[in-house]
Design goal:
The chain has about 425 residues and is α/β, with parallel strands linked by helices. It contains 16 helices and twelve strands. About 45% of the residues are buried.
Amino acid sequence: MSMINKKIINLVAADMGYGHQRAAYPLLDLSRGEIITINNYPGILQWEKDYWVKSLRSYEKLSRFKKIPLLGDLVFAVMDAFQKIPSFYPFRDLSRPTTQQKYFFSFIRKGLGQELIKQLNPSGLPFVTTFFVAAYIAEYHNYQGDIYCLICDTDASRAWAPLDPKNSRTKFLVPSEKVRERFLMYGVKAENIIISGFPLPKENIGLKKEIAARDLARRVVALDPTGKYQTNYGSLLEDFIPDFSLPRDKPVTVTFAVGGAGAQKEIGGLVLNKLSSLVKAKKIKLNLVAGSRPEVKDYFLAELNKNGFGKSEGVEIIFAANKLDYFGKFNECLHGTDILWTKPSELSFYCALGLPIIMSEPVGSQEDFNHEWLLAMGAGIDSPDPVSVAEWLPDLIESGRLARAAADGFINAEKMGTYNIERLFTKNNL
């Protein structure tokens, strides 16, 4: 139960995909349960709303268009070039503004977001956002409180830093020392960069990591049926998790999560088809995450029917029409999840909960960096061809490789970002 009994921040996100709002969700205790949506707030001007709707539709169309051989990749590559993250080495000056930033500022100068800042200014509360354009808006339109921007990936493009970083007052909550160094390259002042870690859901961590440790203990047993990992590395885990010599009495649970644009739903349908015999034999349980998209839920329902599944036959669809309700359902589902299968989005950080991640193909430059980060953590495994999943998934489980990925993510990745951020804002507010 939260000890915070008043609103102490204005929490601002964008309703675009899931990443910005998923990063904001664990911070709801700081905002009395409110996420202010930059592209659909009460009182938003019609031209602003039209601008954001057009932007979102264009991105989703391109994400789906990427599946078209050759031409799709070419068109997406052109778009992605505008938000590409440069190689990390050598350390150099990357502070020059980009075309993408100038594009956004052309609309901000016309008044994009000005009405929202006018509404929020009387509060004087810190403006905490998970979307870089919202940070631009707050600073340009002279928000009266402090401004914080939380980074939602394991690295970030130049667009996430201010247009004029040396004269900016925006502070950045970054997930790691490496991202801090990246923002120094972008020209952000050192005193404006705070290493907080990424905010993960408290209901999956616990005050002392006890919930994540308990879930990992169960997961290691499920993912190490021959005991190979526990025999070789059990002593390594003794300091991190309780006794994991638990009986294995449930099928391995795979959670397949579709991204915000719904572009990977066909992979989920294929996985369902190929694993159907193992699911019906109660060797695998499958969660298909449709998020808040009814068309993805309907697609999965049709696939269940096509593959001869009745109700309660080892497959569950995770869906809620409201995104915040969906995040709650998804976080609850993770307690029983053994393997998370998704593209390397903001969910990459969830490996810290002890979830091994099977990675679908990255979409965009930031996901390429998330992909490399997951490999470096030891927590991510590139997805082999889903057509053969009924062969390679049991092999991965039998080998203990997924148990090792679960433990590596838990040990190596930062878990306490939400609590670190809470401490930052509650020092003088409880």
